[in-house]
Amino acid sequence: MPISPSAALLPCAELHLHIEGTLEPELIFELADRNGIDLPYADLEELRARYQFTDLQSFLDLYYSNMEVLRTGADFAAMTRAYLRRAAAAGVRHVEMMVDPQAHLLRGVPLEECINGVAGVLATSLEEFGISTVLIAAFLRDRPIAEAEDVLRQLLAMDAPIAAIGLDSAEVGNPPEGFVELYRMASAAGLKCVAHAGEEGPAHYVEQALDLLKADRIDHGIRALDDPALVARLVRDRVPLTVCPLSNVRLRAVDTLADHPLPQMLALGLNVSVNSDDPAYFDGYVDDNFAALQRTFGFSPDQLAELAVNSVESSFASGERRAELL
Ligand code: ADE
Ligand code: ZN
């Protein structure tokens, strides 16, 4: 379906999405029940009351804790299917989805349960939901570097259906420079490379992700605006920045949506797209992000179309699929 710039529902690609961040409270309770897990919350209301974040770490604490309910491939499949159904309604036509295999392995969940549970649903997503997919294995930057390298080796040995690697979790104090060998291994295996940088961390983490990790795309990147020379480089090279407005508000990277730098980024000529990051935690899927932006900034049809076109052009979709979407 070609892109038409309607604010209500903008057909687009979602390039920055953590599948574990789509775990809705209702599904958390359902999976806990199925797996005989005692949750530390009495009911949905008590869980929802925890969704008040002061920074990235305060969110990550809850995100990792809620993952406990994911035990089997069927659990991962249920979560993935629920996201795709909701994303289709949001206008998403292509998704590049991150999964945190290391986080599950650390909890004793075999890689096969996690990867095959997600990938099994992705395999039929185009037919079932009209959404083409790419799976990205993300590594935890606040864990030992050797652990990430070991998990990547295991993923490669099992021929996991991943097309790229990513770098996520607590950013400040965990710069990209430690992960050069991980990214070298991934690149040698033919994988694409993305990395979170400049979400809470400084602009020079964005530079490191480009120079040292050879990242094809930067997740977030809003702090790059602190460095005009870096901005000029990002514009010149059309480096894709996968921006997540509601996430940035909820994790207090910006004070309010009205303070978000997205309009400035567009005006500077940066290659930005709009994404939901962890929609179950941040009040919204990609359509909610677009609607909130529209309410706050009143983007023109041309600006909306630019955001959607950027998302497709910055994706790892095949040339044929991109042509279908543009
Ligand atoms: N893992 C899940 N969501 C994340 C985010 N917004 N930043 C870093 N790591 C994450
Ligand atoms: Zn993210």
TrEMBL record:
Keyword annotations from UniProtKB, A to Z: Cytoplasm, Hydrolase, Metal-binding, Nucleotide metabolism, Zinc
Q: Where is the Adenosine deaminase domain?
A: 11-326
Cellular component GO terms held in the UniProt record = cytosol
Instruction: Kindly give the PANTHER family that the UniProt entry links to this protein.
Output: ADENINE DEAMINASE
Matching HAMAP family: Adenine_deaminase
Q: State the name under which the record lists this protein.
A: Adenine deaminase
- Organism equals Arthrobacter jiangjiafuii
Q: Which reaction does it catalyse?
A: adenine + H2O + H(+) = hypoxanthine + NH4(+)
Task: Provide the binding site for substrate.
Answer: 278
Q: Where is this site: Important for catalytic activity?
A: 220
Q: Show the GO MF annotations.
A: adenine deaminase activity; zinc ion binding
Q: Tell me, what does this protein do in biology? A: Catalyzes the hydrolytic deamination of adenine to hypoxanthine. Plays an important role in the purine salvage pathway and in nitrogen catabolism.
Question: What EC number is given for this enzyme?
Answer: 3.5.4.2
- Which residues bind Zn(2+) per the record? 16, 18, 196, 277
